[in-house]
């Protein structure tokens, strides 16, 4: 009888081991691609309120976004974003209902007062978050404008009329002076200097519906603003770099398409000989920024347009690409809809696929999310909150933690290296390494329902998993075997 039991147990163990789906991940440290600059998100628009919430609430939210600390079990406390985007408001908040922006949460305050003086006590919630980010180790900061200040706009509003640019060229210098004043003023108020300034946002869209602050521009107008701002930054002896053009769709980097004079932006701004060339101006970052909206499905077309953009970028000396804004918008060819919150893995896996494709096909050096914190019933926030200005509940999402699979471990200065996975067609792999260090970071996205086992070949290895029941949780690696759970994102950190 004992022999029979032993035999049965042996057979069960043998079958289990045989059934294990093992995968092999191969990295090629000698084959390098882009250097990573940062992973980021923005304070728009909830930052103005949550930054004033009770201390325990706002600190907990800041920890989720910025902390690089670990919990008792070795799991990350937060996702350790490496850059924070600060919304420099145009003043629609002070205008109230007369601003024409229906939703109070989408209005933004301005440091500029009607008499032309500045009040650096404005935007206190956002300034608190800025400091909270720095205190938790964030070292890069960017200020962005959705609209020029309402004092300088053609219609006196923070959104446009009839799809026309809302600032006249005679006001470019005034707008530039405002930007330099804000850079200095924020540094005075917080001790934090903006590394980058983004003066225009999604210039292809009309911004005429009063949904939020916004202003359209064509390439000639953007070029004029950049030339003015470059001079203003030089006069003020500011090292802040200008980031452009935050295109509303990645295809506008390649061609005019349906927006004459607003596309072909790689060549328009960075190809010498172009009438709107600004690539050699002092203070202009050798980076072109685009948004990944409406271009991520189906996967075949997502890859095609990103391949074309990568080739265009590579053709221009010393030019890099940032994906500077994304959340799940639209119906994405039926794959996933932006409507309704999803704090689980369906939305998170979609985001993971987008991040993987942007990083490995478009070769982006930075990947940045839109609303860090959202009060809406939509897939636009890494953290979801009650729409309550004085305090309320908050909830993390798996989108937050999946982004953390990258941001917490793939740090600025690392380079992406070649990697491939064998034995799993439903898995996506990318790898990163800092040239002077002996550490490799591997991010494996398992889109399928299979469980895989990865035998570590390195001397030391740690694994962190985001899955249905895990939030970037440290996995206890046994017998040098990493378990790749179904529908999960796993980060593996190895040392040579």
Structure description:
With 496 residues, this protein is an alpha/beta fold. The chain has two domains: 21-31 and 419-495, Golgi alpha-mannosidase II (Immunoglobulin-like); 37-412, Glycosidases (TIM Barrel). 27% of the residues lie in helices and 25% in strands. The protein contains eleven helices and 20 strands. The strands form three sheets. An eight-stranded parallel β-barrel has the order 3-4-5-6-7-8-9-10, surrounded by five helices. α7 (219-235) links the parallel β6 and β7. The longest helix has 19 residues, at 172-190.
What's the structural blueprint in terms of helices and strands?
Elements lengths: L1 H18 L1 E2 L1 E12 L2 E5 L4 H4 L4 H12 L16 E5 L4 H4 L28 H12 L4 E5 L27 H19 L5 E3 L20 H17 L5 E7 L17 H6 L13 E8 L7 H16 L5 E6 L19 H16 L5 E9 L6 E5 L8 E3 L1 H10 L7 E8 L4 E7 L5 E8 L5 E4 L4 E8 L2 E6 L5 E4 L3 E8 L1
Parallel strand pairs: 1-16, 3-4, 3-10, 4-5, 5-6, 6-7, 7-8, 8-9, 9-10, 10-11
Antiparallel strand pairs: 2-13, 11-12, 13-14, 14-15, 15-20, 16-19, 17-18, 17-20
């Amino acid at each position: 009888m004992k022999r029979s039991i032993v035999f049965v147990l042996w057979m069960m163990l043998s079958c289990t081991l045989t059934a294990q789906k093992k995968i092999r991940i191969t990295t090629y440290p000698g084959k390098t691609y882009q250097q990573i600059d940062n992973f980021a998100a923005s304070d728009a628009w909830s930052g103005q309120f949550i930054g004033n919430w009770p201390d325990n609430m706002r600190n907990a939210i800041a920890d989720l976004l910025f902390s690089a600390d670990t919990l008792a079990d070795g799991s990350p406390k937060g996702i350790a974003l490496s850059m924070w985007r600060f919304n420099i408001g145009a003043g629609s908040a002070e205008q109230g209902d007369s601003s024409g922006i229906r939703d109070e949460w989408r209005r933004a305050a301005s440091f500029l007062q009607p008499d032309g003086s500045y009040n650096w006590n404005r935007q206190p919630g956002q300034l608190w978050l800025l400091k909270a980010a720095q205190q938790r180790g964030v070292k890069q900061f960017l200020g962005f404008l959705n609209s020029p200040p309402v004092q300088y706009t053609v219609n006196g509003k923070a959104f446009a009329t009839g799809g026309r640019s809302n600032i006249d060229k005679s006001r470019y210098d005034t707008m530039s002076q405002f930007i330099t004043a804000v850079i200095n003023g924020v540094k005075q108020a917080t001790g934090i200097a903006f590394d980058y300034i983004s003066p225009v946002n999604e210039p292809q869209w009309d911004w005429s519906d009063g949904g939020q602050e916004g202003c359209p521009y064509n390439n000639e107008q953007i070029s004029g603003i950049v030339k003015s701002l470059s001079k203003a930054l030089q006069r003020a002896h500011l090292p802040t770099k200008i980031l452009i053009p935050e295109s509303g769709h990645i295809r506008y980097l390649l061609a005019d398409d349906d927006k004459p004079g607003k596309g072909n932006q790689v060549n328009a701004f960075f190809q010498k000989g172009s009438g709107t060339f600004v690539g050699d101006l002092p203070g202009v970052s050798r980076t072109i920024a685009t948004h990944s909206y409406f271009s991520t499905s189906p996967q075949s077309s997502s890859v095609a347009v990103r391949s074309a953009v990568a080739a265009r970028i590579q053709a221009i000396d010393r030019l890099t690409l940032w994906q500077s804004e994304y959340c799940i918008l639209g119906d994405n060819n039926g794959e996933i809809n932006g409507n309704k919150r999803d704090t689980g893995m369906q939305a998170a896996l979609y985001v993971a696929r987008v991040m993987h494709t942007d990083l490995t096909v478009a070769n982006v050096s930075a990947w940045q999310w839109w609303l860090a914190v959202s009060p809406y019933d939509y897939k636009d926030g890494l953290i979801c909150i009650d729409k309550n200005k004085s305090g309320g509940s908050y909830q993390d999402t798996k989108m937050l933690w999946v982004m953390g699979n990258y941001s917490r471990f793939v740090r600025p200065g690392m380079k992406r290296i070649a990697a491939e996975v064998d034995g799993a067609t439903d898995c996506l792999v990318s790898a990163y390494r800092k040239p002077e260090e002996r550490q490799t970071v591997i991010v494996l996205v398992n889109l399928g329902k299979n469980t895989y086992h990865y035998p570590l070949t390195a001397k030391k290895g740690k694994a962190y998993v985001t899955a249905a029941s895990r939030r970037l949780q440290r996995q206890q690696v046994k017998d040098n075997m990493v378990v790749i759970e179904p529908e999960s994102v796993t980060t593996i950190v190895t040392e040579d």
